[in-house]
């Protein structure tokens, strides 16, 4: 049940995150004067938390979608297996998000 609720919440979060991402690109396209305040927000501790959350939501939602595709084959529907794959989805999404964020921070340096 928690994975289902989280999947729906991350879907909603992805809408908001995509709007913010579009605003970031729009500011970058307008030039340095428009980008400076947006870049400052994105580079702040709050902006980094938001970006981490957006990355996690994207990865979790994708992995849970793959889990649902697996269910569509008629496999993995037993309660024990469904619970195990839900936990695996949470764990894998956090690990993959850390890898992506660390790689992005390394590339930005």
CATH-defined topology: 3 helical TM bundles of succinate and fumarate reductases
Shape summary: elongated
Strand fraction equals: under 5%
The count of β-strands is 0
The helix fraction, in percent, is over 70%
Low-confidence stretches: none
Return the domain count.
1
Give the number of helices.
Answer: 4
What does this structure look like?
- With about 110 residues, the protein is mainly α.
- It has a single domain (about 1-109), classed as 3 helical TM bundles of succinate and fumarate reductases.
- It is built from 4 helices and no strands.
- The longest helix is centred in the C-terminal third of the chain and has 30 residues, at about 80-109.
């Amino acid at each position: 049940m928690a994975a289902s609720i989280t999947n729906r919440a991350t879907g909603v979060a992805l809408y908001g995150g995509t709007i913010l991402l579009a605003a970031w690109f729009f500011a970058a396209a307008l030039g340095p004067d428009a980008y400076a305040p947006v870049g400052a927000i994105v580079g702040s501790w709050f902006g980094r938390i938001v970006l981490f959350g957006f990355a996690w939501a994207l990865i979790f939602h994708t992995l849970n979608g793959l889990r649902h595709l697996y269910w569509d084959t008629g496999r993995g529907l037993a309660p024990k297996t469904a619970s195990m794959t839900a936990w695996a989805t949470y764990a894998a999404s956090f690990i993959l998000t850390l890898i992506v964020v660390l790689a992005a921070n390394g590339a930005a340096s």
